[in-house]
Amino acid sequence: TSARLLAKALNCEKGPTPTPCGTCSPCTEIAAGTDLDVQELDAASNRGVDDVRMLREAAKYLPARDRHKVFIIDEVHMLTDAAANALLKTLEEPPGHVKFILATTDPQKLPPTILSRCQRHGFRLVPMAQLVDRLSSICNTEGVKAEPAALTLVARQAAGSMRDALSLLEQVISSAAGEAVTEADATGALGAIDRRAVLDFATALVKRDAATALSAIGSVVDAGHDPRRLAEEAALALRNMLATLTPGAPVDAPEDEARILAQAARGAEAVHVARLFDLMQAAMVEVADRSANPRYALEAAALRAVHLASGVGLAELIARTEKLSERLGGAPATTTAAAPVPPTPGAPPYPKDEAAPIAPRPTIAADAPVAAQWAALVEALRVKKRPLASHLEKAIPISMTASTIEIGFREAFFREKVEEPEARTIAETIFSETLGRRVTLKIVALPAEVTTTSVSLADTREKAQRESVAQKKKAVREDPIVREAMRVLNGEIEDVKEVSD
Asked: What are the pLDDT digits (tens) for 274-327?
C-alpha cells in the first residue's frame, strides 16, 4: 500500500507531489494495479535469477506514459543470493527513468551491498490510543455507532496495525446485532476473551483470592478460549497495574480499564506485582509447550501466585535484616565466608601433585574383608600414581588370594585404561610392595546387569557425599537462626547450595 502511494506521488499528473490527486489516470490505475509503468513482483514466489533477469530487461525501456517506471518488489529479502547479486547490478547504475521500491519485513536479511544503495524508511506500530481515535473517526464518518470499549478491543487485537484494525472493524460491524456496536459484539466477532474475566483474574492474583482466580479460569475455558490467551492478557493487565504504581510509566489501557487496574493495585507493593507478572510470563510457556492439560497448568500457576510470599523493597529488607541482627545478639548483618566443607567420610583426600611425600605403607590384615583390603591398596597406589588410582576406583573387587587380585569393570573405558601394559605393571608392582608378596592383577568385564556383594570405591564415595550434602541441607533448614530469619523477613527457602572450600 505504501509503495503504491509513493508511486502515485512520483507519477501523478500534478506531481511529483507529496499529495497526489488520486483522480488522474496514473493515480487511479496505480490504485487498481493496472498501470503498465508500475510493476509489482512478489519475491516470495518469484525469487530466482530468471525473475530478476526479466525485471532488468524491462527496466531498459522508457515508460509508456508515466514520468517514471516503478518496480515494486515485495518481501525482497526472499530473493536467492544469486538473484540478489543479479539485482545489485541494476541498483548500482539504474537508468534515470527507473525507481525501485523494495518492501520487506526482515531488512536485516538483505545483503549490505543492497542496503547501502537504498533510502531506508522504517514502519512503526501505531499506538493503541491513536488506533482508537482513528477507528472512532471512521465510524463517525460512516455513520456507525460504536461503544468505546468495542473500539478499544478492536485496537488491542490489531496489535499496532492500522490495516488489521480496519479489517477487524469491518468484521465487527457486519456481525453487530443492534444499531450500535457493543463490546459484546466485538468480543463475539473477534473471539476475544471477555475483559471482565481478565480483570477479575488479574485482580484476584494481586488480592490473593484463589476462588475468584479459579472461577475466572473456568469461565474462560468453558467459553472455548485457550488458557494461554488468558495468561497473556493477565500478564498485560499486571504490567499495567505495575505501571499505575510507578509514577510516569505509561498505562497501555483505556481510561476506564486503567482506573479499575489502579484500584486493584492499590495497597499492593510494586515488587510483588512484578513477581506476579513473571509468574504469568512463565505460565504462558508452561501452558503452551509443556502441559498435557493447559487448564490445570494455568490453575497451578494461579495458585502459586496466590500463595507467593510477599515481596519487599531493598530498604525494608535492610531494615528487617538489621532488626534480626540485633535480636541475635548484635551479630553483623553482612555476608561471611562459608565454613570449610569437611572431607566426606570414607573418601581419602587427593594429593595435589605427584611429588607429594609417600605416606607410610598401610597395614592390611590378611583376613580383612576384600573391600577393605582393596581400599587400602588403592590408597597406596594413589600416593604414587593418582590418575591410575582414579581409574581403579571404578573397579569392583571380586576376590583376593595370596597371588591374584581379581577386579571387574562395568565401564569399558576404565577397564581399557587399566589393561594397558604400563598401567597394569605399575599397579601390580605397587600392590606387591604394599602386600609384601608378589601378586598379579586379573581384570574382567562385568555386564551392566550383573551385581556383586561389593561396590566400587567411587560408588561408596559418591553415596557418602550425597548423604553428607543431604544432612547439611537438612541442618541448614532446621537451624533456629535460619528459621527466625525466614519468619522476620517473611521469606521462603527456595534452595540450599553447598559452598566449596
From this structure: 889 988 988 888 887 666 788 888 888 899 888 876 655 555 666 666 666 666
Number of residues in the chain: 501
Amino acid at 197: A
Contacts of residue 224, defined as CB under 8 A and 6 or more positions apart, other chains included, come to: none
What residue type is assigned to position 242 of the chain? L
Query: pLDDT digit string (tens) for 244-281?
Result: 888 888 887 777 788 888 888 888 888 888 889 988 98
Within a 10 A sphere around the Cβ of 454, how many other Cβ atoms? 19
Peptide bond into 16 cis (omega under 30): yes
Residues 230, 233, 234, CA angle at the centre, nearest 5°? 80
Angle among Cα 293, 295, 296 to the nearest 5 degrees reads 70
CA dist., res. 254 & res. 237, Å (int): 12
Instruction: Show the cell assigned to 18.
Output: 507529496
- Give the pTM: 0.48
Among 146, 83, 95, 91, CA closest to 114: 91
Residues forming beta bridges with residue 407, ordered by sequence position? 397, 443
Element (H, E) at 228: helix 227-244
At a CB cut-off of 8 Å and minimum separation 6, what does 133 contact? none
Neighbours of 430 (CB within 10 A): 20
Strands (DSSP E) found in 87-144: 98-102
Q: Is 116 exposed, middle or buried (0-12, 13-18, 19+ CB in 10 A)?
A: exposed
Grid cell of 463 as nine digits: 553415596
Burial per residue of 273-305, b for 16 or more beta-carbon CB atoms within 10 angstroms, e otherwise:
bbbbbebbbebbebbeeebeebbebbbebbeeb
Residue 74 phi/psi, 5° resolution? -90, 145
| 267 φ/ψ sector (left φ>0, alpha ψ -120 to 50, else beta) | left
- Burial class of residue 332 in the structure, from the number of CB atoms within 10 Å of its CB (0-12 exposed, 13-18 middle, 19+ buried): exposed
Helices assigned H by DSSP within 38-161 = 49-59, 81-92, 112-115, 128-142, 148-158
Strand, coil or helix: 63: coil
**CA–CA separation, 285 and 297 (whole Å):** 10
Give the span between the Cα atoms of 453 and 458, in whole angstroms: 15
Closest residue by Cα to residue 241 from 264, 220, 223, 221: 264
